Amino acid sequence: MKRASLLILGFLVILSMILCQKAPKDYTHETKEEKDARMQWWRDAKFGMFIHWGLYAVPAGEYKGERIPGIGEWIQASANIPGEEYEKFAGQFNPTKFNAAEWVALAKQAGMKYMVITSKHHDGFALFDCKVTDYDVVDATPYGKDILAQLKAECDKQGISFNTYYSILDWHHPAQHINPDAKNSRAAHGKNKIYADRKQEYIDYMKAQLKEIVDNYDVDVLWFDGEWQDWW
After folding, report:
1. What is the DSSP string of 88-124?
2. CA separation for the pair 81, 163 (Å, rounded)
3. Buried b vs exposed e over 22-57: b needs ≥16 C-beta within 10 Å?
4. Which among 20, 104, 123, 217 could disulfide-bond with 154, CB atoms 3.0 to 4.6 Å apart, if both were Cys?
5. Cβ-contact 124, 135 below 8 angstroms
6. 3-class DSSP state of 223
């Protein structure tokens, strides 16, 4: 009898934990009025800070002594840097002077209401402590600290909405490969192809990363990029 009571009590505790978990929001049947109410903060905010930051800050537009034309975050494609070479930049990524409090304070002083930062750009490198890959700022760099966690904490403290950018295009993931028909390196990387039998593998990987971002950083906005891919 005592054992049965303990089993029932244990079941009730587990059930209460499940029921108390935060359920995902479903906006499928949202009315116009509900959407307007949900989006009002965004329409009122108007002014925010968008931050591009990643491994491409190490070469800073230069590769093998040459200045590479184009925007810095595309240097892997623009300079046609092999993946194994590009990965070495992680060993040099050590932003010891990074100060999340100063960055958020600067945004607030300028009158900004929100911040968006690259959680993962096209190069596939994550600025957070990602559990589905070691190609991230915590596991692959001498810095070893979660950039998103620091900014999230300061945004909450200083009253700024914290949000993230995420690239669907991923030059690092083995499921994707360079388009052989492209005429130049940037076009090749910009039009990545995906191995048909590995597409679901990448989608699962992407969703796992996005779940980590939503669960761990409680963002108000997910800002997607790279959706021009034919396979997507």
Report:
1. GGGGG---TT--HHHHHHHHHHTT--EEEEEEE-TT-
2. 30
3. eeeeeeeeeeeeeeeeeeeeeeeeeebbebebbbbb
4. 104
5. yes
6. strand
Whose CA is closest to 150, among 141, 132, 142, 138? Answer: 138
CA angle 113, 27, 215 (to 5 degrees): 60
Task: Determine contact, residues 123/56, Cβ cutoff 8 Å.
Answer: yes
pLDDT digits (tens, 9 = 90+) for 31-55: 999 999 999 999 999 999 999 999 9
**Is 54 within 8 Å of 123 (Cβ atoms)?**
yes
Q: What does the block give as tokens for 44? A: 């009122």
Q: Of how many residues is the chain composed?
A: 232
CA distance 221 to 158: 18
